[in-house]
Structures are given as C-alpha cells and as structure tokens.
Amino acid sequence: MSKTSPTHYFHKTTEAAPLAAFRIFFGLLMFVGILRFWAKGWIAHLYIEPRFFFSYYGLEFIRPLGVYTYGLFAICALSAIMITLGYRYRLAMTAFFLSFTYIELMDKTTYLNHYYFVSVLSFLMLFLPAGAYFSIDAYLRPEKCYQRIPLWCADSIKLLLSIVYFYAGLAKLNSDWLVQAQPLGIWLSTQSDFPLLGPWMNERWLHYVFSWGGALYDLSVPFLLFYSRTRVFAFVLVVLFHATTRVLFPIGMFPYIMIVSTLIFFSTDFHRKLLRYISSSLRMENNTFDNGRQWLPQTSLRYRLSLHTLFIFFVLQLCLPFRHLLYPGELFWTEEGYRFSWRVMLMEKAGYAGFQVVDALSDERFYVDNSDFLSPLQEKQMSTQPDFIVQYAQYLKKHFEQQGHQNLQIFVESYVALNGRPSRAYIDPNTDLAREEDSFRHKTWILPFNDEIKGL
Amino acid sequence: MMRNISLAITGVLIIMLTACSSDEGPMGENGAKDDFDREAMLVNWADNIILPRYENYNQKVGILSRAVGIFSKEISQAHLESLRMAWLEAYMAWQPVASFEIGKAEELRLRNFTNVYPADVENIEENITEGTYNLSLSSKFDEQGFPALDYLLFGLADSDERLLAKFSEEDSDNGYTRYLVDITARLQSLTQQVLDDWKGGYRDVFIGNNGTSGTSSVNKIANDFLFYYEKALRANKVGIPAGQFSSGPRSEFAEAFYNGATSKALLLASLDAVQSFFNGEHHGGTGFGPGFGSYLDVLSTSKDGEQLSKRINDQFDRARSEADLLNPDLATQVGEDNTKMLKTFDELQKNVVLMKVDMFQALNIRVDFVDADGD
Q1: What residue ranges in B279-326 does DSSP mark as E strands?
Q2: N or C terminus of chain B: which is more exposed, having fewer CB within 10 Å?
Q3: What is the C-alpha to C-alpha distance for residues A218 and A230, in angstroms, rounded to an integer?
Q4: Residues A110 and A235 in one domain
C-alpha cells in the first residue's frame, strides 16, 4: 500500500484537541446565538405572531408549533450547552441538529445562508468523535476517552469551510459584482459613518475595492488557511473581513461563527495550548485526558457506514450549488436554485406585489391588503421571490374560499428592481395564480429579465 | 512569504481598479458620487416643513377649540356655521402633518387618534348616553378625532334645526356638547404635545440621527411617507370607498362622509402635501430645499432615460388631474361614476411602484425596517 493512497490517509490519526476545542466553541456560540434570538423577542415575532408561514416545498409539515416553539428553542439551547460540556455528545448533537434544522425550515422568510451553514455543519459533526476528548463524557467514562482520532475528522470540517468560502467566491464572479460593483455600490454609498473609510464610502473606486477584494478573499482564504506559512496572515484577513461585514451589515452572529470556525485550521499545538489554558482556568489537571489511546475502529460497520454517508454528503455539497443550471433564465431574477448555494450578499432586490382577487362568475374584483396577512418581513421577501408569490396566492385563494367566495382567480401586479436596475414587471399579470402551484419545475409565468448577468 | 502575498493582493487590486475606473457601467446609474448631505435634508425637513406645518395645524386646532367653546356656551346656527368652518380648516391643515408618524406623534399614535374613519357612530352614541369613556384606549380610535366631529357637526340629524336641538336638550349638562368639548380638547392636547416636543429638543434628536441604519431619521421618515401614501392616501381616501379592497364599492367609507362636500378637497390637500414634501418644498410654498427628489438627482437615478424624480413628479401630476375631475364629495362620485375613482386610484398606484421599488432602492432605504439578521 503506497503512503499516498487514499486508504493510507484514512488510517492516519492526529491529536483530538483541535476537534474538541472546535466543539466547545461551536456549542458556546450556538448557545449565545439562541439566547440572543430569544432575548430580542424574535421567536414570537417571527414564528408565533404571523398568521401564515412560507413552508419549503415538500416540507409543508414543518411549521411553527405555536407557544411550544419556545420549547424547541429551549431544546436547541440546552443541547448547545451539552455540546460545549461534552456531556452525552451524540445525543446532544442529534438534538441540536434536529431542533436547529427544524427551526430553520419552519418559514423560508428567515432563510439565511449562515443558518444553513450551521445545519450542515452540525450534520457533519454528528459523525465526528468530538466528544472523545476534553469532555464530561471522557472524564466520566475513561474507556471512552481517546487522545488520538482519525486525521480526516478535523479535515472534514476544514473541507466544509473551504467549500463555503470557495463557492461564495465563485458566485461573486459575475458581471454585476465585478463590473458594476453591485450591490455593494448601493449598500456602501450611504455608509458615510463607517470608521476610517466613511468619507470615501460614496466613491466608486472603493466599491470596486470591496467587491474585488471580497471575491478574492473568498476564493483564496481556504488555501491560505491550509498552508502553514500563510495561516496567520489568512486569519488576520478572516478577522478583518468579518469585522468589516459586522460593521456594515446586520448579520448577527455569523462573523463570530466564521472567525472561530477557522481556528480549526491551526496546529494541534495551538489547540493543546488553548485547552491547557481552559483547564488551568477551571483548576483542572492539564493532562487529565492525555491517555495516549487511539480511536480508529476501521472494521466497525457503523464507522464504515459513517464514512460512506459523509462521502455522499460532500458530493452533494459540491453539486447542489450548481443545480440552477437545470433552469432557464437569469438565476438572480428567477431565484430558481438560488438558496442553499452559498450565494451570499449578491443581490439587492426591491419589489412590490399587489394581489387582485377576482370572482370569475360575477367578475367582482378587489385588491388584497398584504399587511392583513403577512408580517413586514414576509411581505418584503414575498414581493421579490416567485415561489413565495405563488404560495401566498394559494393561501389567499383558500382564505377567500373559506369566506364563501367561489371560482376565484388570483392575479398579481408586481415589479422588481435588481441591483440598481430600474424596476420592471416581474410576474405575468395575466396568469391566474390560483391555478398555479409551487414545484421544482421552472415557473413559466416569471416575465423575462431582458438583461444579462454574465458569470457562474 | 506573507509579505509577498500581501504585495501580490495589493498589486492585483490596483490593476483591477485602474482597469475599471473608466467604466461607467451600462446601467448608467448609481455611478455618480453620493455627496448628498443627509443632515442638510433633515434640517430642511424639520425647520422648513415639519415644524411650520405643525405650527399651522396647531393654530387651526386652537381656532377650532375656541369655536367649540363659543358654540357650547351658546348653541346657535351662526355659531354652528363658524364651528363647521373651523373644523374644515383644521381638517385641511391636518393632511400635511398626517404622514410624520415619528417621535412624539408615533408615541401618542397621533394619526390613529386623529383620523380613523368611518367613525363608529354606535359607540359614539353609547359614549354620549353613558357619559363615561376613556378616549386614550386604542379601541376608541374611531370614536374621536375629525371623523367623530364630522358626525357630531353634520350627521346627528337630517336638518340643522334638529341637529342644534340635540345639543340644546337639558341645558346644564348636554351629553353631545360635553362629547364635542372633550374630543376637541383631546385633539388639541395631542397636537400641542407633539409640537412642544419638536420645539423642546426633538428637532435636534431628529437631525442628529443622520445615519443610514433602519432606525435613522431618513429611513423612518421615508417609510412613514410611503406608508402614508400607500395606505392613508391611496387606499383609505380613494381605494376603499371605490371598492378596490372589497367586493363592491363602499361609499360610506369616504373621508368626511357626513359633511358630504369636502372629501375631494381633503384628498387634494393630502396629495399636494405629499408631492411638496417629496420636492423639499417649504411650508407655504416659499422656496425649496433638499428632499427626496434632489437626493435622487444627486445619485443621477434615471428610469427609461428619464430622471426618476421627474417621473415621480409627472405621476403625481397625472394623479392630480384625475382627482380634479371628481365630485367634491367622493362618496357621491362612487355612487354616480365609480370609474373616475378607479382611474384616480390607478394613477396613484403607479407612484407606489416608482417610490417603493425604484426610489427606495436608489436611496438604499429598507422597506418597513425589520429588526432581524440578514446575510
């Protein structure tokens, strides 16, 4: 067997410290994130108060649980703390993955790439022995404590992070981003209060610096992090980049999650020091977990199954962002295949959608006041995304049918402006949306974009 | 090695910048430098528009209040006439301040306590009969303000004699007179509080909040402005009576329904106020300062080869020409020829799109600021 063969790679082991440190910080950040969400009153505001929720296609059974939604968040917070402590790690990770993912799937109005990242990452961590070291599990049951684990474990997290960055970079290689410096041009030009750069925020050249710098950063930072001699420099870039986005945009916990996640790239020595620091501040003995044992259950069926599952998982991760190629039309306009693809901050879309309900028999018609049914955030998201529009039209149809109307037709008058272009008609106003349904098929009633955005 | 990479990145950036610096972009907009002074716009809004408009409104409510006082002491046809006149003048002066739901006005919910119509006549009568009512409850929005006054001054009876008689029964403590006095006093107290707050330091807070966040003054005023235009003006004044939001017209939902001769004047006053605010025009038409229109011009925002500010102004003008053709009483217009109402609605509607989509995107204003994360 040659030393460079893939099989050889899967036989290699390394210190368990980096993965354990990652687990501790991940749990902690998730716990803080959920408390923050709770404290801001967003649970009620986003998941209890609205009278209608935009489900994901095919996942309509996943919806908020009324007042029990708080329980869901409580489970999520509790399991995050258990993850940090390393107490019943597998159970905690499973509970966290399921509760967090359920929450994110309740209403696609709140879809954010970084929530998706947390879901994907916690799925991956289900399969990793992150609780085998520096954990309550390992402390209570020394037979479950391992100082060395397979090399691929921490590497799989690095690979996921690299995919996120690199794909986000690829998505920026389009003409709006690179040639027009949009949407950053729109967003930056009013940021005259930005520290240091404020006075130049309205300058065109600075929009290009940010756009090109951002694309270059996303594409190169995984490689700079992998290579030990550029790692520190890369980490400085990571901090600067995410700190900038933190100041510019309301993106919550995401910058911190990314900054802390990239620490996984650092050496085992670094992580051992980190854990030593934690143990001394907890007045624990430094070498409590250093038993020299190695976990490499190559023959176990469960282990091999895990490896195969993760292989399929990564193949999916690599393919999913390209699924938009299966659809005709401009991706930014139709948004068919836009989500779950690491397309981050690529669009500034503003829209208006006015619905008209028509009784086909009497030709009676009236407009709908969207604020009667949707929260401001839901209305904003609905007015620029076709799958929201058709879902909402179906909801309106049901609502007015229950009020005794029959033979209803639903038409929408809608306009969307994308990345600084003038607004134009978005959905065919003559399409009766009461007869259309959401599906994975191309929506033929989206009017053409009549412009081109070149790129991936 | 590290130095090499940072040098390389800087080098690449410089090359890219020089390659792009001459590129104006096919869209030809947002290319201009935004050297617009948001603070100057806020100063213009506060000092030349909002404060003078509130001063004017407050003064007219003062006159209304005095007319109520005179009428309540001596119920007469002559006093009723001057009271009705004062009511109309105050109602007209209300229109230009109605959109500024910010600061004290937002805290007090000035618009809801001033002009929610149609008035709930049954509850008003019940209040008067029982003699006890708490007007500061949000369930009492439609039992006070101008619509309730409209009912008391025009809708109590089908003739002036009988209306005056209602106020004259039981000389000492007439329920109608008492309610009239109470709701007018409340109207006065609300506007006085808002005006005092603007004069007593809120102006500086308003101007100082000159950033770009969702809660900045520009963002808030812009959202208030659009909300007012879309809901209070387009829908409430025209769309709802014309039946655009229901099956069939509902003329009884027109503004100043009992008066029956001024809803068109109120609509036009509101439309004029909206357009002059868009253009940064001073109260009383004494001049112009920075406003949404000039902000758009600095950003050289255009649509289909025309300045967006001009497009929006032209659209206001078109809506006004349609509205000019309406009957002085919109409820009558709905009954006689609703298509004219629908045409007015359509023209008003077009500016919702131009402002909510095109203008807001160019000014980087978030619609209905929501406190939630983005990515």
Answers
A1: 302-303, 306-307
A2: N
A3: 15
A4: yes
For residue A394, which of A50, A54, A108 has the smallest C-alpha distance?
Answer: A54
Using CB atoms, pick whichever of B30, B244, B302 lies closest to residue A185.
B30
Rounded to a whole number, what is the distance in Å from the CA of A152 to chain B's nearest CA?
A: 27
Q: Complex ipTM, two decimals?
A: 0.81
As a whole number of angstroms, the distance between CA A391 and CA A372 comes to 16
Torsion, CA B235, CA B282, CA B301, CA A349, rounded to 10: -40
**Among residues 286-325 of chain A, which lie with CB inside 8 Å of chain B?**
none
- What are the chain B neighbours of A416 within 8 Å (beta carbons)? 357
> Nearest residue on chain B to A186, judged by CA atoms?
B364
Answer whether A112 sits within 8 Å of B212, measured CB to CB. no
Residue A233 forms contact with B (CB below 8 Å): yes
Q: Are residues A301 and A369 in the same domain?
A: no
Answer whether residue A338 is part of any domain: no
Distances (CA, A) of B89 to B61, B63, B86, B146, B258: 8, 9, 5, 11, 16
Interface test with A, best of B1, B24, B34, B302 (most A CBs within 10 A): B34
The rounded distance, in Å, linking the Cα atoms of B319 and B314 is: 9
Which CA distances in Å does A351 have to B200, B224, B333?
39, 17, 32
- CA separation for the pair B301, B311 (Å, rounded): 11
Chains A and B: how many Cβ contacts under 8 Å? Answer: 151
CB of A42 within 8 Å of a chain B CB? The answer is yes
Rounded to the nearest angstrom, the minimum Cα separation between B209 and chain A is 11
Does A269 map to a domain? yes
pLDDT tens for chain A, 456 residues long, are 455 677 789 889 999 999 999 999 999 999 999 999 999 999 999 999 999 999 999 999 999 999 999 999 999 999 999 999 999 999 999 999 999 999 999 999 999 999 999 999 999 999 999 999 999 999 999 999 999 999 999 999 999 999 999 999 999 999 999 999 999 988 887 777 777 887 788 788 999 999 999 999 999 999 999 999 999 999 999 999 999 888 888 788 889 999 999 999 999 999 999 999 999 888 888 788 998 899 988 778 999 999 999 999 999 999 999 999 999 999 999 999 999 999 999 999 999 999 999 988 888 889 999 999 999 899 999 999 999 999 999 999 999 999 888 889 999 999 999 998 999 999 999 999 999 999 999 999 999 998 999 987
CA of A191 vs chain B CAs: smallest distance (Å): 6
Q: Which parts of chain B are beta strand (E)?
A: 302-303, 306-307
Number of domains in chain A: 2
List the domain range (segments joined by +) for residue A399. 348-435
To the nearest 5 percent, what fractions of chain B are helix, strand and coil?
Answer: 70, 0, 30
Residues of A in contact with B346 (CB under 8 A): none
Asked if A186 has any chain B CB less than 8 Å from its own CB, the reply is: yes
Interface of B with A in 102-161 (CB under 8 A): none
Is B117 part of a structural domain of the chain?
yes
Asked if residue A267 and residue A300 are part of one domain, the reply reads yes
Task: Name every chain B residue with its beta carbon within 8 A of the beta carbon of A363.
Answer: none
Q: Could you give the CA distance from residue B54 to residue B102 in angstroms, rounded to a whole number?
A: 13
**Tokens encoding B353:** 């799109």
A223 touches chain B (CB under 8 A): no
Residue B144 lies in a domain: yes
